[in-house]
Design goal:
Helices cover 38% and strands 20% of the residues. It is built from 10 helices and 10 strands. The strands form 2 sheets. Strands 6-2-7-1-8 form a 5-stranded parallel β-sheet, sandwiched between helices. Strands 4-5-3-10-9 form a 5-stranded parallel β-sheet, sandwiched between helices. Helix 3 links the parallel strand 4 and strand 5. Helix 6 crosses helix 7 and helix 9 packs across helix 10.
């Protein structure tokens, strides 16, 4: 019987030792939710930039690339889009390349760039990303759900979502494998089970309050919806990390 460790990293830096792990990166409000929607909408490729300036330079250097991101929750100057999954759900992005940079989520994806497999998770694809993560762990890799956090600090909305994904992973049937959650994974799962109303949780968090303050309350409701998507973005498959530009 293959023993698989299941861990939650509450900050991205804890996920750096990830070379032999399957990672699920979570920034539920709003980067990873946006990324799921972009792939759903038929983007040819989402290029994940480490900073807004890197995304701006890439957009200037590559004609036809759409720029998306946020600074303080709003679209940076000169960008085509902000970081609103609701706006992306209505946008004509099929067949286009989009370069995306956000304060927390895209940075977390770059911290995780040396993993065996990196998947993009949120509440909307919770069950789908759990199934994909379990399948990826079949090659003998351990699993870590990596929370983006908020400006270097613990984020309740990401921890809650990590717990939701852990709960779904542990419910999956995995022949020949036994998942062993760490204390952090158990804590995240307990948080999720204790607070069943995601939208209520998100409205109380720093990230959620900021999204509401800038007039994008609909994004909070959208991000709090559970199991609405079967799309699981994967780095290396229509998702590329922008490195060295």
């Amino acid at each position: 019987m293959n023993r698989v460790e299941l861990h939650v990293a509450f900050l991205p830096e804890e996920g750096e030792a990830s070379r032999r792990r399957v990672l699920v990166v979570v920034d539920v409000l709003r980067a990873t939710t946006s990324l799921v929607v972009l792939i759903e909408r038929g983007c040819a490729e989402v290029i994940v930039a480490p900073t807004v300036e890197a995304a701006r330079r890439f957009g200037h250097a590559h004609a036809g690339v759409l720029t998306a991101g946020e600074e303080g929750g709003r679209a940076p100057r000169g960008f085509d889009f902000g970081n609103s999954p609701v706006a992306f759900s209505r946008a004509a992005v099929a067949g286009r390349q989009v370069v995306l940079a956000t304060t927390n989520g895209t940075r977390a994806m770059h911290v995780a760039r040396d993993s065996a497999v990196t998947l993009v998770g949120c509440l909307r694809n919770r069950s789908a990303v759990a199934r994909e993560a379990v399948a990826a762990a079949a090659d003998g890799h351990d699993l870590t759900v990596v929370c983006a956090g908020r400006e270097g600090r613990f984020s309740l909305d990401d921890a809650y979502t990590a717990g939701a994904i852990v709960d779904a992973i542990l419910a999956e049937q995995a022949p020949g494998r036994v998942f062993h959650p760490t204390d952090a994974a158990r804590a995240a799962q307990a948080l999720y089970r204790t607070l069943p109303e995601a939208e209520m949780v998100f409205r109380t968090t720093g990230a959620g309050q900021n999204v509401i303050r800038i007039g994008l309350e609909e994004d909070v409701r959208f991000c709090a919806e559970r199991d609405r998507s079967s799309v699981v973005p994967r780095v290396g498959d229509r998702v590329r990390l922008l490195v060295g530009e």
